[in-house]
């Protein structure tokens, strides 16, 4: 894949970039390792000040970077601005909380005594150079949610961003540098995916984190496993959105939330609700209102404030989505709306918001992630069927359940196989809450204390009597 900005609204190549050659990569890896040796010894207060300064710059430059993101991957300008603001918030959150989250831990006196020590404690020390392989769908946020905690913990970072967001990738490297981080703390490597393996195998690289598809996760984890290096993997998802009868009184709110949960980021979000599992008592009302609301969304130029849904980010992404939908239709699924390219938009990679009913387990769309504005609707008769269907996927990122019944809430909280269960709302990441999945959605957690400790050497310090 060439490293280039290609406008998904028109399909035009706006700017191409030469990938870094072996010398350029060597220079940056060496610098990252050299910088780590001194940066690891800095105190939390100075790291926090640097992060806060990066947040201030990002706030000041929000409009500019938002336009770059929209140009490169087609999210609406409003969504891009919100993403930039969210990044600044996460930086400030780690600046304010990093030291507390990494404070020394003191085992109980009795256990210290029992171990034969006069003193023992656990300290979180940085690991070293961390390689981050990142996707285009939240081109700023995915990177910042790794970079803010990693830098706060005293690590240095190397970013291999998706090949279709090079300008955002370069902006990020520049941002941390301008904020005052020593050169080498955070660097962008403009490289293709074929160059990832050799960087990861470099002995100066201590660990890796990857957000992206299952295939990319599998290859990076295999190399890291071979090198015995820790990884965090944030992969795909096909989150359920369950609606039970006790939500009948707030169905309009549930429907509005369902639409946002499905089409946020033009439908290209790992934590988007993708499968809508609705109890038979409320199914007809939900299906009718949901379909109408999806059909009413405005598809168009993402730079325009009136647009709800922009194009898909890549031509291949739209082709994959179309194939999933067309195959389901040919096997008997029904399109309640959409299922085609908008006639008014012959150029670019647009796709109409789509609702499919009559999906069966034999169809690929039942098992695979639909990465675009396509919802599948299922009718279930009771809570057991809802839980079973929600778990009938190889993914386990997050989940959404609408019910005011406390017994049902306990049941879903206990039995849904996912890294999150969000009741009467939709999944959204927040710096204070762990984020990540189970099954083929990956392993490890980002954000919160878990996210900052992921790239630490958890060290036992033991002092004999
Ligand atoms: P992708 O094709 O896997 O790309 C992600 C990153 O991995 C890119 O930088 C890509 O580089 C690189 N890459 C691809 N194949 C690789 C390989 N074999 N070895 C090393 N690196 C490789 O994914 P995407 O299409 O950009 O993103 C969509 C996927 O990401 C969806 O499945 C989505 O659900 C998932 N995602 C998950 C989360 C989460 O938090 N769980 C968040 C966002 C997205 P190139 O661009 O150069 O190919």
Question: What order do the helices and strands come in, and which of them pair?
Answer:
Layout: E1 4-6, E2 13-16, H1 22-39, H2 44-60, H3 62-73, H4 77-101, H5 109-114, E3 117-126, E4 129-133, H6 141-152, E5 156-160, H7 166-178, E6 186-188, H8 196-201, E7 205-211, H9 214-227, E8 231-234, E9 239-243, H10 251-263, E10 273-279, H11 280-295, H12 315-330, E11 334-337, E12 354-357, H13 364-367, E13 374-380, H14 383-390, E14 400-402, H15 406-415, E15 422-423, E16 442-443, H16 448-453, E17 456-464
Parallel strand pairs: 4-5, 4-7, 5-6, 7-8, 9-10, 9-14, 10-13, 12-13, 14-15
Antiparallel strand pairs: 1-2, 3-17, 8-16, 11-12
Helix pairs in contact: 2-4, 3-4, 3-7, 4-6, 10-11
The protein binds NADP nicotinamide-adenine-dinucleotide phosphate.
NADP nicotinamide-adenine-dinucleotide phosphate binds near residues 160, 162, 163, 211 and 212.
